[in-house]
Amino acid sequence: MSVKLSTRQVGDVTVVDVAGRITLGEGSSALRDLLRDMVGKGQKKILLNLGEVSYIDSSGIGELVSGFTTVTNSGGELKLLNLNKRVKDLLQITKLYTVFDVHEDEASAVRAFA
Amino acid sequence: MRENKHHVPESVERLLDSTLDSVESAEELALSVAQRAGFDDDDLMKIGMAVRESMVNAVVHGNRYSEHKKVRLSVTHSGERYTIKIADEGEGFDCSALPDPLAPENLMRTSGRGIFLIRSFMDEFQIERRDPTGTEVTLVKYVVSK
User: Structural domains in chain A?
Assistant: First the structure.
């Protein structure tokens, strides 16, 4: 399976439920396109729920970074939710874990947006 | 790590096209050998990622998806060494010139973490220029941890 992306609103926060593989090719480009589209539509509060991500490679990490930069530069906030061990380990190894605001439950993640 | 009491040396080689499908098949092949070698799930994840990153480098940066260039993959398990070699037919590169992805000025770059992750996940990693052209990487994971 490649990546499956679905969005829902929780108040003024857009939650993107990500499932599958964020890897070079279809997976990483789909995430990139979605985030750019959301920023283009003026969405400022984006929560990436990575709980169902089965695999992420360095390209996928790059898209998380790219998305963070794109959203932040547009005056918005991007946060991460439900990192599994693989994603968490990768972000820690690459010293990106402290760059992102990471949460383990959705309610507190939504409250964390300004 | 599970102990493989019935270790049988194993060696496989493939000549692969420069496509993303080859990245997937290389990872699958490497993991099948690694599983038989007795690596646990944590090490399997690391091996899979290291192979993937190496294959992407070969396909994308080395051979640039050229249909005229191949990637040579070999996976060997012998004794306490599990060895992967991946060779492309590209122009080669100077790995000493790679930026450090952990340096503050590079942290927010969207690429450049592949080789760093390979080094993090494997016990040995070497890059060599091939003659007349291309790059070969050698990845080693010890079957018995040091």
Answer: 3-111 (3.30.750.24)
